[in-house]
Design a protein that fits this description.
single chain, 6-stranded mixed beta sheet
Amino acid sequence: MCVLCVMFAVTSQTALKFDEETADAGVHWAIIVAGSNGWDNYRHQADACHAYQILRKHGLPAERIVTMMYDDIAHNSENPTPGIIINHPQGQDVYGGVVIDYKGEDVTPANFLAALSGDAAKLKGVGSGKVINSGPNDHVFVNFVDHGATGILAFPSDELSARDLLKTLTTMSTQKKYKEMVLYIEACESGSMFENLLPSNISIWASTASNSEESSYACYYDNLRETYLGDVYSVNWMEDSDKENLNLETVKQQFSIVQTETNTSHVSQWGDQTLASNHVGDFQGEGGLIPDPIIVPKVPFDAVPSEFVPLAILQHRLMSAKDHAQEKIIREKMVALLELGQRVDDTVKSIVEFATRGTRQANRILSAKYRLTDWDCYEPVVELFDERCFDISQVDQARRRLKVLVNLCEERVPVETIMEAIAKVCTSHE
């Protein structure tokens, strides 16, 4: 009996010591977000699913991965392979086995920030309710894939502002909810989410598909599915992670590879540069697992700027149209798309002319390329433009013209004047 007592005591002490050591070492967490919906945006959910497979293969437990995606692609009526999503023309299914925590209308900026910061109370009764329950010794990996514009990341029916993201990150730092964090952001003008915003002293390093002024690029057009399968920046880092030993490759090495291979936009880095010396496995894996490499064959990217994807898809479909009736439908869609772009341009021009009441200043504002500094002006102006003029989460052309609203603010046109102009020009939502 005494022997059993001793054995129990020793076993208990060993288990306690193991738990303490594990807590001291910390664990790894990840959140993956595809912020779009619709067949034309197939590539975003394909990227997100592929990222999930990478994290799982490299040892990150499913219970420490939070996923957000609309989930309208795998079983979409346009999908010729129901239940299957691929991220490369000759790639394997990346959808099978993906656990989606938040889908459909639950894919919102507020839910993303709550899940990232571990605010389970805000997500009670929403989706799976899973959050990143990280602590001061933990590593956190964030992967966001979608559309973007100056200072925003798009979600299916809303937008995440750069300052709201920064507020959450700094609060997490203050509350010691991580040891180190890495973000990979795939979106147009994604550099604007961090430029002159992300400090270098809160142990966060971010990589973006583009700088603050340019588009990110879609790639891998698929004739069977008639849509793009991936994004250049995303497939470059993921195809590298598929074949590398992530316990040996550093974040800096992966960044250099992706920066070199992504020749369509300027892949950029922000924040604490010292984190780049960490191994990729510190964020994209756990447990020292070294899987068999996956090497996909090199095929042409057929890269196209993200904002031109809808038109490029229609052009591809037009070339493969089987009869005149099909051609007519496609051409009508192309005309409608071009007319929408013209309507956006005309609307923005009218707003500028009304706000400035001066031709010389108006012309300068319509063509200038100012960097955003006046956030207090820009954010309410964008919110009203989204509410009254165009749904910027859905209309590519409207997101591209937000640069003009930046210019209005940077030219010190009073915010009240700009908002009056928007209300005057946009009497109803387009």
